[in-house]
Amino acid sequence: MRLIGVGMGPGDPELVTVKAVRVLREADLVVVPVMSADEVGRAEATVLAHLDHDRVQRLVFALDDRGGATPDRIQAWDVAADVVAEALRGSGSVAFATIGDPNVYSTFTYLADAVRERLPDVVVETVPGITAMQALAAHSGTVLCEGTESLALLPLTAGLEVFEEALTHFDTVVAYKGGRHLVAVREVLAKHDRLDTAVFGAALGLPDEQVGPLPTSAAPYLSTVIAPARRTTRGGKL
Amino acid sequence: MRLIGVGMGPGDPELVTVKAVRVLREADLVVVPVMSADEVGRAEATVLAHLDHDRVQRLVFALDDRGGATPDRIQAWDVAADVVAEALRGSGSVAFATIGDPNVYSTFTYLADAVRERLPDVVVETVPGITAMQALAAHSGTVLCEGTESLALLPLTAGLEVFEEALTHFDTVVAYKGGRHLVAVREVLAKHDRLDTAVFGAALGLPDEQVGPLPTSAAPYLSTVIAPARRTTRGGKL
Q1: pLDDT digit of tens for each residue in chain B (238 aa)?
Q2: Do the Cβ atoms of B107 and B65 come closer than 8 Å?
Q3: Between chain B's N and C termini, which has fewer beta carbons within 10 Å?
Q4: Are A41 and A107 in contact (CB under 8 A)?
């Protein structure tokens, strides 16, 4: 029994690895998380660019983690884990397709934990994927880090204080999940004189993609803000 | 004239994106950095798994940045930039294949700056790639971040103090380029009670791959150390 978390990248179907495509094709069953059973999920759209529809099963799943491990959310993960465990008992391998990278803020982590409780012998593997941070950097022409620069990555669900502390101690700071906090994020960036160089992205690789300066009002939950290191050219730090 | 930095991932030829393969195949010329003209470079090995040899040109290039922007290193970048600029004048597009991601501690950043000085009209693009951090996480079964955890990424060339500060303020800490400092890195991790859970990797995806606990002696320059966040199960932080 193998459960494989496969990174589908940020949304552009071309930004998956050759390995991810092979693993999806070889898996006995491919499971995709969706918010509701009657809509195409974000990971699913990339999966379907490389795989036949009839080998893909939708799994209704809490896709964000705004609430942390609340009883309701634990129950949702448990229901999902029951479905996957049942599939694993009948199949040799189940691939769980997840946007981004399965080891970076992915619901796969919670699913794998819950499946392990049901099937202690399950082998869990992951295939890395391109993260939103990397896709936004490439799309916007932003260097994430060079030379001796440090990079901090955090979700704004951790609080604006953590974001501000990162701006103080680190060179490049990347914040996820800040859509609803954008006005406050702009204020913190301006205070640190880093608003002008900051880059915002949402729905990367999708038709409603947004890339550019930070919007002045709220934006989608799954958004990315990059505050690049202050730099001279050629690796110098300011 | 287009100069495209293409991420080749950590070494495993399957860990490149579908887009990277397409861009390499469509480029008029593919350039790969090598330490010396008579050996296959690390990025080159992955390129050659997807492309004919006769479309690939080696470029002797300073691949590490241990010395920062010293006169010798600037000269090496200048020579490389002259070669690439000359190729761009004769070709529509030149793809520069680089290990990892072209926006994450990549020599592509320096090359692009130097080419822009020579050809102000050049269009510079990048295609993201899987980083060593992600490959090591997948290979070792290490979750990089979940829930509200923060992640710090830094090169140990920035100094052990920066590493220690990151361990104090951040949940997961990833350090690159620490091969020669491993004994000191072990001491700092032990002091913060994080040596037992730390993971080490070098030469990922290559025949001489190393993955496991931190070695007790020096290791290759291009190495990765992950100190995962302290966790309970299901997203809880200790």
Answers
A1: 999 999 999 999 999 999 999 999 999 999 998 877 787 888 999 999 999 877 899 888 765 554 556 676 677 778 889 999 999 998 789 999 999 999 999 999 989 999 999 999 999 999 999 999 999 999 999 999 999 999 999 999 999 999 999 999 999 999 999 888 899 999 999 999 999 999 999 998 888 899 999 999 888 888 999 999 998 654 444 3
A2: yes
A3: C
A4: no
Residue B223 near residue B178 (C-beta atoms within 8 A): yes
* Residues A12 and A105 both lie in one domain: yes
Is there a contact between B14 and A17 if contact means CB atoms under 8 Å apart?
A: yes
**Overall number of domains in chain B:** 2
A62 lies in the same domain as A110 = yes
* Burial zone of B96 (CB within 10 Å; 0-12 exposed, 13-18 middle, 19+ buried): buried
Which residue bears the tokens 């130097």? Answer: B114
The answer to whether A65 touches B99, Cβ cutoff 8 Å, is: no
Q: Chain A: residue nearest B127 by CA?
A: A138
Contact present, A107 and A7 (Cβ < 8 Å):
no
Q: Which residue of A has its CA nearest to B77?
A: A234
Mean pLDDT computed over A92-100: 95
Contacting residues of A for B126, CB less than 8 Å apart: 137-138, 141
- For B124, the token pair is 């510079």
A162: exposed, middle or buried (C-beta count within 10 Å: 0-12, 13-18, 19+)? buried
Provide the token pair at A24.
Answer: 């999806």
Spatial neighbors of A39 by CB under 8 A, at least 6 apart, are none
**CATH number of the CATH domain containing B168:** 3.30.950.10
Are A105 and B146 in contact (CB < 8 Å)? yes
Say yes or no: B117 and B139 in one domain: no
Domain encompassing residue A9: 2-127
Whether B11 and B114 map to the same domain: the answer is: yes
Q: Residues A88-91: contacts with CB within 8 Å, 24+ apart? A: A88/A1, A88/A2, A88/A3, A88/A115, A88/A119, A88/A122, A89/A1, A89/A119, A91/A28, A91/A29
CATH code of the domain in which B53 resides: 3.40.1010.10
B62 in a domain, yes or no? yes
Selected for mutation to probe chain B from A66, A96, A170 (highest B CB count within 10 Å) is A170
Closest residue by Cα to residue B126 from B159, B156, B104, B155: B104
CA distance to B105, B152, B185, B187, B226, per residue, from B174 (Å): 13, 6, 12, 16, 5
Instruction: Report the chain B residue with the minimal C-alpha distance to residue A73.
Output: B234
Tokens 């090995």 belong to B45
The encoded tokens of residue A155 equal 């979700």
Question: Among A125, A138, A158, whose Cβ lies nearest the Cβ of B128?
Answer: A138
pLDDT digit string (tens) for A181-201? 899 999 999 999 999 999 999
